[in-house]
Amino acid sequence: MKTLGQKFKILRQKKGLNQMAMAELLDISIPAYSKLETGITDPNFSRIHQIATVHQIDIRQLLSTGEDEKSEQEGEIERLRQRVLELESSVIRLQSKLIDLYDREDQRTRRD
Q1: 53 shares its domain with 21
Q2: Torsions phi, psi of 13, nearest 5?
Q3: CA torsion, points 33, 34, 39, 42, in degrees to nearest 10?
Q4: Which of 31, 49, 64 is the last residue of a domain?
Q5: 74 and 60 in a common domain
Q6: Structural domain of residue 82, as residue ranges?
């Protein structure tokens, strides 16, 4: 399970920000932000809310345990699996139609 500091770091990196930029967004010093990421300092609720706002995520997402994330990922994987099955079915239907068209064209050209 990731620590809160590790989550802060991952979110910051996903946004393509360095610690200096993140510290500026939070209006704190770079060392203060670094201590949040490393877990030296525990953030208060206000700071957690501020970080969630910067990253445009719900506080519950930020504070969730790995189980919640795992469950969301499993749900997303299942949705993607269903979508792949739907697309495979569409491809098979289109291939069948294409084969029928080729067969008809082949029969027509043989008659002519």
Answers
A1: yes
A2: -65, -35
A3: -20
A4: 64
A5: no
A6: 65-112
The string of pLDDT tens digits covering residues 56-104 is 999 988 888 766 566 677 888 999 999 999 999 999 999 999 999 999 9
pLDDT at 42: 93
Q: In Å, what is the CA distance from 67 to each residue of 45, 64, 70, 72, 96?
A: 22, 8, 5, 9, 43
Q: Is the pTM of this model over 0.70?
A: no
Sole residue written with tokens 């393509």: 16
CATH number at 54 reads 1.10.260.40
Query: What is the rounded distance in angstroms from the CA atom of residue 68 to the CA atom of residue 7?
Result: 14
